[in-house]
Amino acid sequence: AGATYEGFLGTDPGYLPSLGIPSPATASTLVLPSGLVAGTNYLWRVDATVGGVTFTGPEFSFTPAPLLVMNANDSGPGSLRQMLIEAASAGYPGVDSIYFHPAIFNGEPGDTIILSSEIVVNDTGGVIFDARTIASGVKIDGGPGMNRILTVSSGQSVRLRNFILTGGDGTGATESGKGGAFLVLGALMLDDCTLTGNSAASE
């Protein structure tokens, strides 16, 4: 008979919980479940049972990468919008923190994130935009076409830390003309943020 595999995954070296038998695994691979926490070190192994005899596999470790903005692009890999898409995925449950690379956002003119359209947050767990490691803060501009900077959808919770928000004029897909920098249909908290040069056509 062929081998059956049992995968184990956890954070305690003394106890790795089983993922069940048969696990989604082979002798050297393991299909990871959703719900892993970024920045946490995980241990895993796969045991094989052949002819009633179980062979314990070696342990490996990995750490899921944090959500880190790697450039000031409006969209695409490494951008703030892409990190929001990933934050809303099943792989990042609960409140998500998005960070900014300090070597990229270091106060130069090209560090400003210039938007072509508003950023809409749809993450049921909530999102923290955390730029506390950036000495001068992260600047987001509504862009040459003038857009609302951020819309917080109903039921969503957003917190911004250490941002400069400018150039928002309330233009967006929902209630366009309202809000200036923000349209808040859920909850928004601001820590050490500066708002300048924002306007709205109506309340």
How does this structure look, described?
By secondary structure, the protein is mainly β. The chain starts with a strand and ends in a 7-residue tail after the last strand. It has one helix and 16 strands. Helices cover 4% and strands 33% of the residues. Helix 1 links the parallel strand 5 and strand 6 (96-100).
How many beta-strand segments?
A: 16
Structural class call reads: mainly beta
Helix content: under 10%
Biggest beta-sheet profile: 5 strands, parallel
Pattern of helices and strands:
EEEEEHEEEEEEEEEEE
Spans of 5+ residues with little confidence (pLDDT < 50)? none
* Rg, Cα atoms, Å: 22 Å
- Whole-number mean pLDDT: 86
What proportion of the residues form beta strands (DSSP E)? Answer: 25-35%
Distance between the termini: 72 Å
Task: Provide a count of the helices.
Answer: 1
Shape: elongated
Strand order of the largest sheet: 5-6-9-12-15
Labels describing this entry:
four-stranded antiparallel sheet; five-stranded parallel sheet; mainly beta; 1 helix; 16 strands; 203 residues
Detail the topology: elements first, then pairings.
Elements lengths: L3 E7 L31 E9 L2 E3 L4 E3 L4 E3 L10 H8 L8 E5 L12 E2 L4 E3 L5 E4 L7 E4 L8 E3 L4 E5 L1 E4 L15 E3 L2 E5 L2 E3 L7
Parallel strand pairs: 5-6, 6-9, 7-10, 8-11, 9-12, 10-13, 11-14, 12-15, 13-16
Antiparallel strand pairs: 1-2, 2-3, 2-4
Short recap of the structure:
By secondary structure, the chain is mostly beta strands. Helix content is 4%, strand content 33%.
